[in-house]
Amino acid sequence: MIPVGAMGMALFTGWFVPKARYQGSRVASFIYLVMLRWIIPLAILIIFLNSLKLI
Question: Any alpha helices (H) in 1-55, and if so which ranges?
Fold first, then answer.
């Protein structure tokens, strides 16, 4: 259940938390959002499927 919770937190933070909360340069904020919205959930999904021996 830990991967499911981590996926939920990453998706919620990436898609529903206002962009004004991310401080720093524009490039750093953009990279952070791309990682939270796409890369981290994909990595968690791969880890979850690997732990179930589906891949």
Answer: 2-16, 26-34, 40-51
Rounded to two decimals, the pTM is 0.80
Residue spans of the domains in the chain: they are 2-51
CB of 51 closer than 8 Å to CB of 4: no
Is the pLDDT assigned to residue 21 strictly greater than 80?
no
What is the Cα–Cα distance from 38 to 24, expressed in whole angstroms? Answer: 20
Interatomic CA distance for residues 33 and 41, integer angstroms = 12
Look up tokens 């990436």; give the residue. Answer: 14
Helix axes 40-51, 2-16, angle to 10 degrees: 170
